[in-house]
Amino acid sequence: MLLLLLMNKVKVIYKGNSFSINAESSSFFRKFSGLMFRPASTSSLLFAFAKPKKVSLHSIFVFFDFLILWIGEKNKVVDFRLARPFKMLLSSDKKCLKILEIPLNSRNKRIIRFFVGNKKI
Questions:
Q1: Which end of the chain has fewer CB atoms surrounding its CB within 10 Å, N or C?
Q2: Is residue 121 in some structural domain?
Q3: pLDDT tens-digit profile of 57-98?
Q4: DSSP-derived 3-state class of residue 30
């Protein structure tokens, strides 16, 4: 089976700062598996929804830390969270139209540092 990976350049805005992030578009199946069983060097993942909704995630079988961005209208970040491996519930009280899962790796160093500071990556 041939899998076509669609990469998007996603511009996100938070507190007047904007970032462009390369992210793999998610298929229906990818929405359920996310970063599970992938290496930390993997691409960021983009999940898009038809209408604003509250979305909860988990990090079961994700073996590395990653950043979650909940994105609302006009690509504004409405919430974010640093996710640790094997957590059952990662949620936000805010509704979103998109979610970005961003692995903590050298490719994403700039955006990770902006959101979580100078913690060791």
A1: N
A2: no
A3: 999 999 999 999 999 999 999 999 999 999 999 999 999 999
A4: helix
d(CA 75, CA 16): 12
Is 120 part of a structural domain of the chain? Answer: no
User: Which residues fall within 8 angstroms of residue 100, CB to CB, at 6 or more apart?
Assistant: 10, 12, 21, 23, 44, 45, 46, 47, 67, 68, 69, 71
Phi-psi region at 12: left, alpha or beta (left = phi > 0; alpha = psi -120 to 50): beta
- The answer to whether the predicted template modeling score (pTM) of the entire model surpasses 0.90 is no
Q: What tokens were used for 85?
A: 């491996």
The candidate with the shortest Cα–Cα distance to 32, out of 44, 20, 45, is 45
Q: Tokens in use for 77?
A: 């970040």
Residue 36 scores a pLDDT above 60: yes
Q: Between β-strands 90-91 and 44-53, what pairing exists: parallel, antiparallel or unpaired? A: unpaired
Range(s) of the domain holding residue 36: 7-115
